[in-house]
Each structure stands twice: as C-alpha cells, then as structure tokens.
Amino acid sequence: MSFLYRFIPEYRSKRPGALQKGGRLQVMTLEERSPSNFNLDLAEPRQRFGVVWRDVNPEEPHEDAEDLGAVRFNRLEGAFFKGGVFWFDDTAGGEKRLGQVCRYFPKSKKLELFYEGTEANKMESPDNITITPWGDLWFCEDGDGQNRVMGITPEGNVYKFANNRVPVPGGDPNNPEFSELAGPTFSPDGRTFFVNIQNPGITYAIWGPFKRFSERRQRQMAVAAPPKELAPRVSGELAEVAQRYGMSNLEAAAYDRLGAQLT
C-alpha cells in the first residue's frame, strides 16, 4: 500500500541548504470522501476528484496517512511534471493489477485516473514515465515478460515504441530473462530519446526521427476535460473550423461564445 506525499518548504529560496531549514509534509486526501481511505482501484478512467492536502508527522507518515483517510495506491513508481501537470503511475494499480496512470492538476487541485491497464499487451507494470515533445505519455514496463516502452496518446490510445530484446547475462539461452527498461527522457531539443536497460546496464540514445505533432496535442495532455454533461455543444461546422485551425472543440467553443469570427 502506498500514499502520495508532498513537502512544503519553510523557505522557497533556491540556495543550497534551503530545504534543510524545515517545512511541512502533507499527504493527498480526497475532499468528498475523506476520511474513507478511498482506493483508486475503484475509480473509473478519466474520473476526477477534488484533492485536499493534510499535514502528517514526518516521523510517522504512514500511520498518519491511514488515520487521515488518505488516498490508497498499490505501489507508486514513476513521476513526471510538465505543462503544469504532475503525472505519476501505480505499477500494480487497477482491477487486474496491470497498472494505472494518474495526473494531478495543482492549480485546480484535481486528481484524475488517466488510464488503467486492462490487457497485458497494452500495459503491464508501468514504471518510469516521461512526456514526449509532441505530448504523448511514454512509460517503461517492469513486468514479468519482455518489457517495453509504450506510449499513450491524449485520447487514451496505446501503442508500442520498443521491446527490450537484450537478455540478462548468464541466463538460460532457451528461456531468457529480460530486465526492466528505465529512465526514459528526451534531450532539450526533443531530437534524442534516452533509455536504459537495468541489467546488463546499457544506455541507448535513439534519434528517431520522431513524428512531430501540433501544439494542440501538447495542450490536450495538460487540460482536464469537463464532464460530458457540462461540456458545451459544438456544431459540426464549428468542429471543422477547430480542426482547420489546430484547436480543440472546447477552445473553438470559447472563441465562438466571445463572438470571435472563426471562418
């Protein structure tokens, strides 16, 4: 069982040693369910919850988290922050224990279950994660089989980028074992993808070329869509205009409501 914590430093200075001056350790709880210790296994994909951060004793954080009704996860692993969104995964989360990917929006204090594994060929034990330059989420697997680097689009479609085909040294050649992939990250210019194989200890630099997508794709991953019943109705004509200008339907609806001419 895992909980998600954050540390609020007493001093926000970027000088070395500032964090050692103390602060508050807090655990994630849900405002509408606390103190029920809600398990995210019970959530539906794209379901969102309001978050309340509560102080815990740094000497007994686990006990305090249970007493405060903190959100329960199974085994938290990878994390990544981009575009104002904090991404993290639960390697054993979900009804089938294949894994879950969540995102937290600090400004609105909303937690969303972004994706849950239901088939091993799409997700099995997600570990380290990263956001690609074009806005997809990539995750490395740490499962029992041949681990992969997998991608998820903003729409929730899953695809395979790479397989680990390097067997662990010294194993049975007739029944090879494959170590986990780890540390996925892109260079600042977005042209090179780095990833490691834990055993035998190899780092790869992959140049692609990687397919480029519009800024709209990146914005989609940093926006929590409203519930369907609250979303504006968008005509087919307005949807076509949105696609022409590389906008989401919600952005086009906002411009239309303000009286802007989109033709």
Automatic annotation (TrEMBL):
It comes from the Bacteria. InterPro entries: PhoX, WD40/YVTN_repeat-like_dom_sf. It holds the Pfam family PhoX. Transmembrane segments: none annotated. Signal peptide: none annotated. This is DUF839 domain-containing protein. It comes from uncultured Rubrobacteraceae bacterium.
